[in-house]
Design brief:
- Chain B: GO terms for molecular function: omega peptidase activity.
- Chain B: It comes from Paraphaeosphaeria minitans.
- Chain B: Keywords: Glutamine amidotransferase.
- The complex is a heterodimer of chains A (918) and B (376).
- By secondary structure, chain A is α+β, with helices and mostly antiparallel strands.
- Among the domains of chain A are: 415-607 and 775-803 and 853-918, Zn peptidases (Aminopeptidase, 3-Layer(aba) Sandwich); 635-663 and 704-735 and 751-770, Alpha-Beta Plaits.
- Chain A contains 17 helices and 47 strands.
- In chain A, the strands form twelve sheets. Chain A has a six-stranded mixed beta sheet, sandwiched between helices. In chain A, strands 6-7-8-9-13 form a five-stranded mixed beta sheet, with no helix packed on it.
- In chain A, a hairpin with a 4-residue loop joins strand 20 (304-308) and strand 21 (313-318).
- In chain A, helix 4 (416-429) runs antiparallel to helix 5 (440-456).
- The radius of gyration of chain A is 33 Å and the shape is elongated.
- In chain B, a hairpin with a 4-residue loop joins strand 7 and strand 8 (222-226).
- Chain B has helices at 16-19, 26-29, 75-81, 125-134, 138-141, 149-163, 176-198, 327-334, 345-348, 360-374, and strands spanning 3-14, 48-52, 63-67, 85-93, 109-111, 114-121, 211-217, 222-226, 239-243, 245-248, 264-267, 275-279, 291-292, 297-302, 305-310.
- Chain B is 25% helix and 23% strand.
- The chains are: A alpha+beta (918), B alpha+beta (376).
- The interface between A and B is large, with 61 and 58 residues.
Chain lengths: 918, 376
């Protein structure tokens, strides 16, 4: 997707980091097909870039953005509150019985007003999300299309389907008599709806009409006075309103209400402060057209007013002369929303396209933002970052970054978190797939990009070459404060920039795997969680500390490019450059996952692995079984099957003599860790079953060795009459401490050879050890784990309650959890796979529980380098899992939650600064 | 008094989705109309009609299908409705107030591309009929085939358009503002004729108040009126609903009262009005879907935009809290006139016209009913 990816130069790489970001490289809205066409036209960074996308299951009709939250009104009557920091859904407010049509914030952002197709206007507290007031009209007003609130007059205005504008002076709320409960719109007797049919029976209310909404309860009931109504404010629906000062040139201090209607008129209203906020028409903006050319949207900038109409018409009105100054023709279709900000006008509409204008009303860019209609938009500048938000009937909310905004010069500060995501955005775009030779160049580019990131942050770097053709290792060193030079400790961070292949031929990825895409609080992309995200978090943590002059130790980085391919050449290269790397006090890596999606973990053990190929070959060529098949012939495949059958007994027990001997018994404090894990997991997911069984299944995978036969391969054509000349099988053994990989490999070879000998076959056996990695067991009571634990607790907080999830949380298949009904007398634990743990998370669950500490876990997988580094540098290692169980590392749609990324950076920062003090 | 319904959509809809299937479809309204007080004769069984515009290739005129049998008994109606789609549909079920049972008297009426229907009645019609007829150009006078006040109102509307310089013969659309002015002029002329005929002594054996709920379309725009020539009475009921799709309610699991009927909802996925429905009575019992058309106003549907204009004349009140009595319109609903019909005196008498000495019990009943009805 990156236009420069074929010919990237160091200059271009550098320009993407730190200083002025290279806008072309920042493009990552690759999720949209049409945006690709857009990309063809070089627009020099004027097209806003897609930062994040939040998916819902219903149309998004209204948006309001506060300093903390994005509020979105949906077709289902909900108001969604997303964090503006992490884009996580913080709350789903069940607010209305029908589509939420309008949201407005009070000036101080303490109140949120919502209107919908039900005849109630709700007023919410933006900190507690509770309802403060429920307000209704005594009249039958239909849908309430818009609300506006005057903080100055403390008066709320609403514009409705029945052409009226009505208002309520909140100053009077306690003075006016309390409304009769019978006047509530759903209690009112209606001469039609409560009428009786033949037989004197009234028609029951349709189902769903009496459903009580979870959040639309409580608060004070307010009824609009029968006279606080302006009938026929428009001769059409009152589609939109805005309210502000400096609208009237002759009275800039006066607050004026502006409304646009289905009749095609824009009316400016004087607010009578003494008359309870009553409005009277000041003047009407008209362009002499026939009625009915609806005003669909309004926006104002000083004395200029913009109105959106059908077929992409955007009008510019001068409020001083009350004239139509210009009419623009946007490619948006009916202009359903207009937003102003950063010196730009954004128009969005039916075609899903946003057209961006500058102050001279020239089109700066046009881009596809939604697959359906764009129904709402908002512009906000937060921490100096101009942000544009759109919502549409494709059920999504999209956050856009607008890079070329006014007043965003050098002084505009961008948060490190944003820069970190930006760096990741580029890092992920390099297809650093180590297993496929065609990506060798991409791997190199990725490595040199990574190096440039270090260089930009002032780290000393070097590229450590491995034996050709393997990918180089990036080495970097952040020096601690010179003051502490003598006693400076050294922390080595180990990671890998290579990734598992993601060809996406079956299009199972929601987005291009090598285009970082933000969605629903997560970043999606190959390698984001394994291991590029955690690497970047560690780099930024070191950089921030160095910047703040708090770096009391040296932080070394060894980021290799062959981890996913068995760390080819790593050990040799590190050994060769040991001088350069120097001494190391601690080793840290971040290349695994939590057990579920909620409770942070620390990994203190990994299994080792041996990959072996067993091959049996005969002297004959491939033969035909009808012609040559006989008891006299030793068939290689038959031999192989007989041989392999000796390896494992029933229930997976490995039959290699001495295989289990070195394995450590279960210590008491270790057992305690397992019970902590099961208690925590079961509290969150009672469906996981019995605690003892769960602990057993975890132990089987973490602290017990295992053997797997992966596949058979045979020579000759693939049909059922061939006696293959050659047969081979791939198998692997997962090892646990204290099994030495080389020792087990020797045992395996000896065992196979002796068993083969007993077969008395004329064929020949060849056993190859393709790869081996040592198991690793850290000391979870050591200072490095203690430091990590306290950092995790201070960053994630002591209460790791599950937040109430959104209503539309994906329902996972829970079948995994149900113990196998056929297991019957079999007392072996049913296999609770890693999948089950990941899938079990994310279910809506109201209960909260407290996990005081991170869970200490082990993993069934292997990272070859960790034990090697421990041995080589004689330093203890610790492993911090950054991602959640549902991150889908190595799978399609790999992702990392933004909160995890941000918090991982915080944890690294704490560890980097606190560990040396231990 | 009759019931009618208008559909104007961005897309075509199957007639049965409006006419047959909804819980309170126009077909249901023909035997179960709720906003009439008459429990003995609640039927709109004096014929019905549907009119809809077809593919432009078949010409600009609407297809109109009327019958004098009750809608609920017409097997052809359900056959046609479940296989016909249109984006602009008029439907009408009739309870005669004027004119007898005949095909010519069934709404909707059409002329070239114009289509018209009426719910209500012209006050003192017998006293103004001749003057009305005489005021028309000959081509509109000769157009009238039947004997209803409604058809004469249509002729009057055509005359108004003609005299304002908009020939109804034109192949092009007439346009929403011309249609609206035509309706206003028609109402104005009816009022003037009545005023001239009855003078100041308004109340007599025949009521001079008119209930003029008209619907007219040129095949593109629709103008409906909800009107009563009184300051104190409410007009005959008229509701509208707009949204993005007309869908069978997914929440509907209960068996409905009538076989084949379903709960429908007007969905709103965006703020547009892709579908606009206007009806004498809501087609569903979804409260939040239906809005009352203000008394004495016109509702215009133009390019899927709904506009509402007040009809400002002697009978208009600018006060939003102005209350009107629903008694007259309801009483009209049970007033049956015509040579073969008897006026149900005992329940109508006194309300509205204020004469006679009704027995106190029935007056009480009506007063209660009215007070119950005016709350909403």
């Amino acid at each position: 997707m990156c236009p420069f990816s074929n010919s990237i130069t160091s200059h271009e790489i550098l320009s993407g980091v730190g200083g002025a970001p290279n806008p072309e490289l920042l493009q990552h809205d690759g999720a949209m097909d049409s945006s690709r066409q857009q990309r063809a036209v070089p627009d020099h960074g004027r097209t806003p870039s897609l930062v994040h996308r939040m998916k819902h299951d219903k149309s998004i009709l209204a948006l309001a953005v506060s300093s903390q939250y994005i509020f979105a009104g949906t077709q289902g009557g909900e108001i969604l509150a997303y964090s503006l920091d992490t884009y996580e859904l913080r709350r789903t407010i069940e607010a209305h019985r029908g589509s939420v049509l309008s949201l407005a914030l009070s000036q101080d952002q303490s109140l949120l007003f919502s209107s919908a197709t039900d005849p109630i206007v709700n007023v919410w507290c933006t900190s507690t999300f509770s309802r403060l007031y429920a307000l209704w009209s005594p009249y039958d007003l239909g849908d309430i299309f818009c609300v506006a609130y005057s903080a100055y007059h403390k008066t709320l205005y609403l514009g409705a389907q029945n052409t009226s504008i009505q208002w309520y002076d909140l100053k009077q709320k306690d003075v006016r008599p309390q409304p009769n409960p019978a006047s509530h719109p759903s209690e009112r007797k209606n001469r039609f709806f409560d009428s009786t049919g033949p037989g004197g029976v009234s028609t029951p209310r349709p189902q769903g009409a009496d459903v009580t909404l979870r959040d639309a309860v409580g608060g004070q009931y307010l009824e609009i006075d029968r006279q606080d109504v302006h009938q026929f404010a428009h001769y059409g629906y009152v589609n939109c309103m805005l309210l502000g000062k400096r609208i009237l040139p002759e009275a800039p201090a006066e607050e004026v209400l502006v409304s646009g209607g289905g009749d095609g008129r824009i009316v400016l209203w004087r607010i009578d402060a003494t008359g309870g906020g009553a409005i009277s028409s000041l003047f009407t903006l008209e362009d002499g057209r026939e009625e009915g050319e609806s005003i669909l949207s309004l926006a104002r900038d000083g004395s200029f007013l913009y109105s959106g109409r059908f077929d992409g018409e955007v009008n510019v009105w001068d409020l001083e002369t009350r004239q139509l100054v210009r009419s623009l023709k946007a490619a948006t279709g009916d202009v359903l929303t207009l937003s102003l900000g950063g010196g730009h006008l954004f128009a969005g509409g039916v075609s899903g396209v946003v057209q961006k204008y500058n102050q001279h009303y020239e089109t700066v860019s046009t881009f596809k933002a939604h697959e359906g209609l764009i129904l709402a938009s908002n512009f906000t500048t937060r921490n100096g970052k101009p942000t544009f938000v759109t919502g549409g009937n494709d059920n999504t909310i999209v956050i856009w970054e607008v890079p070329d905004c006014e007043g965003r010069g050098t002084d505009a500060k961008r948060s490190n978190n944003d820069l970190m995501v930006e760096s990741l955005n580029q890092f992920v775009s390099f297809k650093t797939v180590s297993s496929l030779p065609k990506y060798r160049a991409d791997c190199r580019r990725g490595a040199s990009y990574l190096r440039s990131v270090f260089q930009n942050f002032g780290a000393a770097t070097e590229m450590l070459n491995t034996s050709e053709p393997y990918n180089p290792i990036v080495f970097a060193k952040f020096r601690g404060n010179p003051a502490s030079a003598a006693s400076r400790k050294k922390i080595l961070f180990y990671g890998h920039y290579d990734v598992i292949a993601a060809e996406n031929e079956q299009a199972k990825w929601k987005h291009d795997p090598f285009t970082l895409t933000g969605e629903g609080g997560y970043l999606y992309g190959r390698g984001i969680s394994d291991n590029k995200g955690p690497i970047m978090a560690a780099i930024y943590a070191a950089h921030e500390l160095a910047n703040e002059q708090y770096l009391g130790s040296d932080i070394l980085f060894l980021i290799e490019g062959e981890e996913e391919s068995g760390s080819r050449g790593f050990a040799q290269a590190v050994k060769a450059k040991k001088e350069l790397i120097g001494d190391v006090d601690w080793i840290l890596l971040a290349n695994s996952y939590w057990l579920d999606d909620h409770v942070p973990c620390l990994t203190y053990g990994l299994r080792g692995v041996i990959h072996a190929t067993v091959q049996i070959e005969s002297k004959h060529p491939d033969l035909h079984s009808g012609v040559d098949g006989s008891a006299l012939l030793d068939e290689p495949l038959k031999d192989l099957v007989m041989l392999l059958s000796k390896l494992a007994g029933s229930h997976g027990k490995v039959q290699i003599p001495g295989f289990y001997d070195p394995i450590l018994p279960l210590a008491e404090d270790e057992e305690k860790l397992y019970s902590e894990i099961t208690t925590t997991l079961l509290r969150g997911n009672p469906d996981l079953g019995d605690a003892e069984e769960l602990a057993q299944s975890l132990m089987r995978r973490w602290r017990e060795a295992s053997l797997t036969i992966h596949r058979f391969q045979t020579s000759g054509p693939d049909n059922s009459t061939i006696i293959p000349r050659l047969a081979k099988a791939s198998l692997s053994l997962r090892l646990v401490p204290n099994q030495e990989a080389s020792e087990v490999a020797r045992l395996l070879e000896d065992f196979l050879q002796s068993e083969f000998f007993q077969l008395g076959s004329k064929n020949s056996l060849k056993v190859t050890i393709d790869h081996q990695a040592e198991p690793w067991l850290g000391d979870f009571t050591s200072p490095i784990f203690q430091t990590l634990e306290s950092a995790i607790m201070s960053v994630w907080g002591p209460t790791l309650g599950r937040r109430r999830n959104s209503v539309h949380a994906v329902k996972h298949n829970l079948d995994y959890f149900t113990p196998n009904p056929n297991s019957g007398s079999d007392d072996r634990p049913s296999p609770t796979t890693s999948n089950a743990l990941a899938n079990g998370s994310g279910e809506p669950d109201e209960q909260k529980f407290v996990a005081q500490k991170p869970l200490y876990i082990r993993e069934g997988g292997s990272i070859p380098s960790i034990r090697f580094l421990e041995k080589e540098f004689d330093a203890p290692a610790a492993h911090l899992p950054c991602g959640q169980a549902s991150d889908s590392a190595h799978l399609d749609n790999e992702r990392l939650r933004l909160v995890n990324l941000y918090n991982s950076k915080k944890i690294f920062k704490k560890v980097f600064s606190e560990l040396p003090l231990r | 008094m009759c019931r009618f319904m208008v559909y104007k959509g961005k897309d075509e809809i199957l007639l049965s989705e409006l006419i047959l299937n909804p819980t309170h479809s126009i077909l249901t309204q023909s035997f179960d109309s709720r906003l009439r007080l008459d429990t003995r004769r609640p039927h709109n069984g004096d014929g019905f009609g549907i009119g809809y515009y077809t593919l432009p290739s078949l010409g600009p005129e609407p297809c109109v299908f009327t019958s004098t049998i009750p809608a609920w008994n017409c097997i052809n109606l359900s056959r046609i409705a479940s296989k016909t789609k249109s984006s602009l549909i008029f439907a009408h079920v009739r309870a005669t107030t004027e004119g007898n049972l005949s095909d010519q008297n069934c709404h909707p009426f059409s002329y070239k591309r114009l289509m018209f229907m009426h719910n209500g009645g012209i006050g003192s019609f017998k006293r103004i009929k001749m003057k009305l007829a005489m005021s028309l150009n000959e081509r509109w006078f000769t157009l009238v085939q039947g004997s209803t006040d409604s058809e004469w109102a249509f002729a009057l509307l055509l005359d108004c358009l003609d005299k304002a310089g908009h020939d109804p013969d034109t192949d092009a659309g007439i346009g929403q503002s011309v249609l609206r002015r035509g309706i206003l002029k028609t109402i104005e002329r009816i009022n003037a004729l009545i005023k001239e005929a009855v003078g100041r002594d308004v109340v007599g054996e025949e009521d001079s108040r008119s209930l003029l709920n008209f619907a007219v379309t040129d095949g593109e725009s629709v103008v409906c009126s909800r009107y009563v020539s009184s300051r104190t009475d409410e007009a005959a009921s008229l509701f509208w609903s707009s949204g993005t799709s007309w869908k069978e309610s997914s929440a509907s699991t209960k068996p409905s009262a009538e076989p084949g009927q379903k709960d429908y909802v007007m969905e709103r996925r965006d703020k547009g009005s892709d579908i606009v429905l206007v009806a004498s009575e809501p087609l569903t019992f979804e409260r939040d879907n239906w809005v009352t058309v203000p008394t004495n106003s016109t509702l215009t549907i133009h390019k899927q935009t709904v506009m509402i204009h007040p009809i400002i004349d002697d009978f208009y009140s600018p006060n939003p809290a102005h209350t009107r009595s629903a008694g007259f319109a309801q009483a009209k609903g049970q007033t049956i006139t015509g040579p073969d019909k008897v006026v149900l005196q005992e329940r109508v008498n006194g309300e509205g016209s204020g004469n006679g000495s009704p027995d106190p019990r029935s007056k009480e009943v009506i007063r209660e009913a009215i007070s119950r009805l005016t709350v909403g």
